[in-house]
């Protein structure tokens, strides 16, 4: 019963996440950027623009220029999250590759860093009047959700252990359609429920920022408008239609 | 002449970046005059708010979402991190939270969410979505005309979200339903009808140019020409019409003429395209921006020029540098050895590099100078081959023409420059309140260099900046003529071959040389 419920939940969540993301990516891909609008000074080559994007993704370069506190908390949160997720891969691959085993020890304390980063961001959202002003309930809920996931995970890791071999069996079973029972530990169930919620919300929320960044014309365009003519399909049609003399 | 005002602080200069206290609704009532039917018609917009405006507005929003990736991605991606909240000069100057870039975007985003997203359709309260009511439309009209589209916020946003893109979309939507802005739309109409923003007919321009030619001859002893509609010239000069009309712009124009003359490059203005400015950008209308741009192409073709050079104007240079090739290109009929188009500063700088211009810097010794980076030049264009040439080239020109040059604080110049407060279609008296307040960060940075280095004057390469500063500088304790054109400095210092100035210099040095020989 419980196993079936969670199996269904995760199939649904995965479908929504992947389907939703594919839809959004397709939408961004198909929507043209009719004008050259990189925020200058900008790299003059495509390779340079790719490097600029990479710096934004890895270092949060613009954010660093803008505000050191948000940068610190945000960067710690995201990179801890990355480590945590890498660590979690062990539930989904069998056998666990050498590299992933090595990554485990780095991941252990990342859970704390992730929650600490989130706490810092949340504190700013509550304490700084400007940021409080721009926050909608969903912005707080998103943080609550992630903190909830982090805390429940840490609880399992350090206080109320669960049978992670069984958890792995359950998820491998989901992927191979040979269902295995899920341990009925309450903390685990909370953790998994929140994770499923996160997956479902992802493609409908501001969490799209991770995808959006790659499509942001002010960051991904090369600064070469005089050298290379840039024309969107709809603008070409306008031109062909002879909108003007 | 400077009137004391409440903006002037006696003790020490406050930090240009100082955070204001948040004053909700501080700028709520402020809105520019609404366009009349006769201002709307030439641009193809309905004369007054249409009956089914709400439906039309949502349709237009949907259309723009499909046409502009920037809009679609930016409305989805903001995480409300708050990094941009203290970056807008209008927020710093007014404390009105709706002038924080993210809050300005949210005026449109809230409506986007309501009509175009799952969450906004079913859980509007949760995600801050709202219906498009007349109140919301009026709020758009007010606050999207308190954005100068300067892009300072986009520098700092981790995703490069550019509020200018959002403002442009909002203005286009409002135009489409019949709630246009009088200032911009009336001006675009003038360009269509007469050829320039100021509505100067060819006759008036010709007589101005004649007067200037006489002035130049008197000053230099040289026949420096300022032609208009002269076929077969090398260069078409496209310059803001303010250069033909007002100080200090006109001194800049005389500087261009001197540089062209010294370089031996023939040039002409065009009466058909007697305007560099393109307010089509401010109202976010691709079609109108293109229409204005095509005039320049047509003028270049008709006059048979080989190069197009733009005079000192910020947003015009954005349209020219970044968009002209897209809107009115390809420019394969021009001389491929030069970028099309070129900025007058690039033109002058290249000659300097080739050692073909001589300057007597002492002619500018009465100025202790700083430079205002205009937003559209700084954050939306380039000069020369290298990223950042838009900062270095004008400075190189100023340093070559003036002995006393000082930059303002680093966090207020180059890519972090503060808008003059009058860009983006705000340069109109009905918005004077926000113009004065929005100039505050720039003015404070200027007060700082006055304090630290005794700076007396500021040069700029934008007609809007110059016009705005002429008006607002007195409010901050500066003379209205403390703003200069960059090519005014060139005009003052240049020593032209065969000119009176050249002879004077020779006479000064020759007796000395003669003495030297005698000894
Ligand atoms: C390419 C991937 C990603 C990049 C480059 C990225 C970047 C950023 C940046 C620069 C911020 C703003 C600073 C901050 O508040 O931390 C941010 C905020 C945020 N990110 Fe990401 N992110 C990515 C993926 C993700 C993912 C996968 C998640 C969630 C599972 C996530 C969750 C969040 C949340 C919740 C916030 C808002 C924090 C707040 O409320 O202040 N991000 N992200
Ligand atoms: C289906 C997906 C997931 C499963 C099956 C899962 C399962 C688990 C389990 C069993 C633990 C306990 C580890 C132990 O006792 O050693 C754990 C810990 C944790 N989980 Fe998850 N989790 C999932 C997704 C996530 C996601 C998406 C996040 C973050 C947003 C997350 C964050 C954490 C954290 C921070 C910890 C504690 C530190 C650590 O062990 O790395 N989990 N998770
Ligand atoms: S573009 Fe400039 S004026 Fe507009 S919100 Fe951003 S910083 Fe403010
Ligand atoms: S900096 Fe960008 S993501 Fe952050 S609140 Fe401003 S617009 Fe949104």
Tell me what you see in this structure.
The complex is a heterodimer of chains A (245) and B (519). Chain A has helices at residues 2-30, 46-59, 61-66, 68-88, 98-108, 110-127, 129-134, 137-158, 164-176, 186-201, 209-215, 217-220, 233-240. With 245 residues, chain A is mainly alpha-helical. In chain A, helix 6 (110-127) packs antiparallel against helix 8 (137-158). Chain A is globular, with a radius of gyration of 22 Å. Chain A starts with a helix and ends in a 5-residue tail after the last helix. In chain A, 30% of the residues are buried. The mean pLDDT of chain A is 95. In chain B, helix 2 packs across helix 10. Chain B is mainly α. Chain B has 23 helices and 7 strands. Chain B folds into 2 domains: 24-180, Orthogonal Bundle (Fumarate Reductase Iron-sulfur Protein, Chain B, domain 2); 200-493, no CATH class. Helix content of chain B is 49%, strand content 4%. In chain B, strand 6 (457-460), helix 21 and strand 7 form a beta-alpha-beta unit. Bound molecules: protoporphyrin IX containing FE (2 copies) and iron/sulfur cluster (2 copies).
């Amino acid at each position: 019963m419980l196993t079936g419920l969670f199996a269904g939940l995760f199939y649904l969540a995965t479908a929504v996440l992947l389907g939703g993301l594919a839809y959004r990516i397709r939408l961004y891909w198909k929507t043209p950027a009719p004008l050259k609008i990189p925020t200058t000074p900008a790299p003059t080559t495509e390779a340079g623009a790719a490097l600029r994007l990479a710096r934004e993704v890895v270092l949060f370069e613009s954010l660093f220029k803008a505000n050191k506190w948000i940068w610190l908390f945000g960067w710690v949160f995201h990179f801890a999250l990355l480590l945590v997720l890498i660590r979690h891969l062990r539930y989904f691959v069998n056998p666990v590759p050498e590299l992933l085993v090595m990554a485990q020890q780095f991941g252990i304390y990342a859970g704390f860093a992730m929650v600490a980063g989130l706490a810092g961001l949340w504190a700013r959202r509550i304490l700084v009047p400007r940021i409080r002003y721009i926050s909608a309930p969903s912005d707080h809920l998103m943080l609550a959700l992630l903190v909830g996931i982090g805390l429940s995970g840490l609880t399992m890791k350090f206080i109320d252990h669960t049978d992670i071999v069984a958890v792995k069996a359950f998820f491998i079973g989901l992927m191979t359609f040979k269902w295995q029972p899920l341990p009925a530990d309450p903390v685990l169930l909370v953790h998994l429920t929140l994770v499923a919620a996160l997956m479902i919300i992802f493609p409908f929320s501001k969490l799209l920022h991770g995808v959006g960044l790659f499509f942001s014309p002010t960051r991904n365009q090369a600064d070469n408008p005089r050298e290379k003519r840039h024309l969107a399909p709809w603008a070409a049609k306008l031109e062909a239609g002879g909108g003007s003399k | 002449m400077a009137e004391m005002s409440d903006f002037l602080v006696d003790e020490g200069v406050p930090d240009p970046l100082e955070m204001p206290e948040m004053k909700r609704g501080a700028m709520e009532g402020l809105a520019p005059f609404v366009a009349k039917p006769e201002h709307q018609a030439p641009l193809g917009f309905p004369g007054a708010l249409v009956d089914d405006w709400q439906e039309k507005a949502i349709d237009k929003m949907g259309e723009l979402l499909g046409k502009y990736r920037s809009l679609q991605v930016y409305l989805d991606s903001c995480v409300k991190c708050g990094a941009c909240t203290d970056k807008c000069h209008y927020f710093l100057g007014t404390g009105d939270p709706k002038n924080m870039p993210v809050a300005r975007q949210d005026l449109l985003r809230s409506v986007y969410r309501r009509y175009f997203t799952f969450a906004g359709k079913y859980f509007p309260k949760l995600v801050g979505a709202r219906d498009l009511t007349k109140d919301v439309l009026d709020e758009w009209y007010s606050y999207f005309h308190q954005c100068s589209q300067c892009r300072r916020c986009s520098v700092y946003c981790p995703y490069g979200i550019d509020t200018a893109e959002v403002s442009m979309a909002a203005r286009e939507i409002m135009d489409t339903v019949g709630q246009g802005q009088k200032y911009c739309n009336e001006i675009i109409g003038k360009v269509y009808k007469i050829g320039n923003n100021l509505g100067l007919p060819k006759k008036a321009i010709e007589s101005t140019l004649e007067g200037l030619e006489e002035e130049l001859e008197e000053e230099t002893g040289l026949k420096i020409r300022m032609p208009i509609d002269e076929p077969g010239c090398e260069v078409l000069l496209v310059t803001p019409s303010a250069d033909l009309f007002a100080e200090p712009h006109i001194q800049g124009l005389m500087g261009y003429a001197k540089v062209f003359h010294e370089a031996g490059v023939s040039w002409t203005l065009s009466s058909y395209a007697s305007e560099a400015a393109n307010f089509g950008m401010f109202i976010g209308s691709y079609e109108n921006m293109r229409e204005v741009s095509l005039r320049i192409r047509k003028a270049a073709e008709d006059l048979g020029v080989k190069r197009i050079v733009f005079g000192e104007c910020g947003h015009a240079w954005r349209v020219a540098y970044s968009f002209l090739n897209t809107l009115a290109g390809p420019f394969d009929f021009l001389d491929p050895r030069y970028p099309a188009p070129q900025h007058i500063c690039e033109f002058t700088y290249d000659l300097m590099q080739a050692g073909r211009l001589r300057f007597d810097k002492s002619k500018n010794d009465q100025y202790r100078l700083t430079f205002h980076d205009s937003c559209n030049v700084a954050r939306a264009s380039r000069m020369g081959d290298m990223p950042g040439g838009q900062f270095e080239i004008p400075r190189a020109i100023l340093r070559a023409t003036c002995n006393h040059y000082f930059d303002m604080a680093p966090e207020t110049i180059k890519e972090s420059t503060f808008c003059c407060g009058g860009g983006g279609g705000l340069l109109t008296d009905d918005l004077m309140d926000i113009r004065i307040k929005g100039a505050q960060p720039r003015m404070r940075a200027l007060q700082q260099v006055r304090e630290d280095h005794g700076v007396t004057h500021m040069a700029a390469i934008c007609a809007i900046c110059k016009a705005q500063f002429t008006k607002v500088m007195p409010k901050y304790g500066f003379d209205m003529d403390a703003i200069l054109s960059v090519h005014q400095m060139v005009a003052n210092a240049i020593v032209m071959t065969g000119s009176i100035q050249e002879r004077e210099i020779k006479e000064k040095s020759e007796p000395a040389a003669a003495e030297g020989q005698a000894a």
